[in-house]
Amino acid sequence: MPTYRELLQQVRGEIDEVDATRARELVDAGEPLVVDVREQDEWDEGHIPGAVHIPRGHLESRIERAAPDPTRPIIVYCSAGNRSAFAAKTLGELGYQDVVSLSGGFTDWKRNGFPVQLQAGLDAQRRARYSRHLLIPEVGEEGQLKLLDSKILLIGAGGLGSPASLYLAAAGVGRIGIVDADVVDESNLQRQIVHSTERLGEPKVDSAKRTIEALNPDVQVVAYKERLTSENIERILADGWDVIVDGADNFPTRYLVNDASIWHGIPVVHGSIYRFEGQVTVFQPGAGPCYRCLFPAPSPPELAPSCAEGGVLGVLPGVIGSLQANEALKLALGIGEPLVGRLLLFDALAAEFSEMKLRRDPDCPVCGEHPTITDYIDYAEFCAGTREPA
Amino acid sequence: MTNVRIPPTLREQTGGEREIAAEGETVRDLLDDLMARFPALRRQLVENDDLAPFVNVYVEGEDVRTLDGLETEVRPGSTIILLPAMAGGIR
User: How far apart are CA A54 and CA A37, in angstroms?
Assistant: First the structure.
């Protein structure tokens, strides 16, 4: 019985081989079919442009579809020229008349500096990580690549930002920006699951970044350790965001985010919570109403208790923040019916959802037909209740 | 009588009630009835004899501003929801 080496030697004597330079000439002449017989992970790391991929184990069963004409010249290659030698012999036995094996394989091709096409698709590791997405026809590899390429900005790394950031990160959103100036406080941990007891006193953006990167190294986290203001919002938006997830805790920030999103044309996934109830909607500039259409003015401060004053059931931001992540993913993927022009209310005690219709206000001072606000205003003053009575 | 859903931010003013039956044929009547019984609601709902800009009223899921405002008719059994702006999120 011959050894592998002897068999390889014997097979190489029975087939034709070309070196990388000759193969390049043939490829440039455009005539041959180039067949890569390596494994998926090898192919993913780069291959000869225009080659078809048929792993050695599937060669006999799949070559006919790739090369129906047995007279067409074929260059077959692997990484070093051994597997392709056996493949060339097999192709000869199948009746292919003009088959050559690339001696030195793809390794030698690369060493010569010849063109290499990098795989635009997902590598094996990502295919495994996102397999449950790939199984859904509406997402699939194309959708997953979109997510990996998408950029979502979160306002706040608190109650709503915690679940939203975790699910967006797990889903493979390639870049997540987080704006928050606070540090992790003991009273946060009843609901802010992106943080932990050992992070007490740490800036929330740093804590969230560590959790997210541990969950999914595909995600790049851009941390803005600052409070969103009229002064810094243009700089932050200049980093290029596809969707904003608004989990702010105060009216000035809500109106600031709204106005900026209209001027920049960025959809905002809005969520807010209080005690046992929450609301979610999507403000998509041009397609539906904005926050000012819904609430032309904020509640006077003395009439609008915050969660810090009124409390909130720990799981409620989990529900609402997850719904926000759901909307953000739909927007990033371009699928489904986003909550544009619809306000979803959730009542945790009744375990009940209800939906309100929202309409654009043609007289809206920012997104209406004749806008009167075209630049940032003093949002603190606007929300302090000093506005003129209507 | 028509049931009016009271949002959590307004329950302090209504003795904690989540839903209150009110009398009237228009949104204005209903609110007048509610405000007569719970006077603290007035500042939360009206401004210059009109709906305050920071509160929305929905009749069967529709914003009354897109209907007939405070004069929007209501029927017994209609679903009425009061919705003031709420800012809560992160802290």
Answer: 5
Picking from B8, B53, B91, the nearest residue to A249 by CB comes out as: B91
Which chain B residue shows the shortest CA-CA distance from A346? B7
- Shortest Cα distance from B84 to chain A (angstroms)? 7
Which residue intervals of chain A bear CATH 3.40.50.720? 150-383
The residue among A277, A355, A360 with the most chain B CBs within 10 A of its CB, best to mutate, is: A277
Q: Which CATH class is domain A150-383?
A: alpha beta
Interface predicted TM-score of the whole assembly (ipTM), two decimals:
0.90
Instruction: Enumerate the residues of chain A whose CB falls inside 8 A of the CB of residue B38.
Output: none
Q: Average pLDDT of each block of 10 consecutive residues along chain B (91 residues)?
A: 90 89 95 95 91 93 92 92 76 41
* Nearest residue to A131 (alpha-carbon basis) of A172, A176, A175, A168: A172
Å from A216 to nearest chain B CA?
Answer: 23
* CATH number reported for the structural domain that contains residue B69 in this entry: 3.10.20.30
pLDDT in tens, A16-48: 999 999 999 999 888 899 999 999 888 888 899
Model confidence pLDDT, tens digit, residues B44-53: 899 988 999 9
B91 within some domain: no
- Per the structure, how many domains does chain B have? 1
A92 by Cβ neighbours in 10 Å (0-12 / 13-18 / 19+) ranks as: middle
Does B63 contact A359 at a Cβ distance shorter than 8 Å?
yes
In a domain, B90, yes or no: no
Q: Name every residue whose Cβ is closer than 8 Å to that of residue A235 and which is 6 or more positions away in sequence.
A: none
Q: Against a cut of 0.90, is the pTM above it?
A: no
- Residue A217 makes CB contacts below 8 A (sequence gap 6+) with none
The CATH code for residues A4-111 is 3.40.250.10
Region(s) of chain A under CATH 3.40.250.10: 4-111
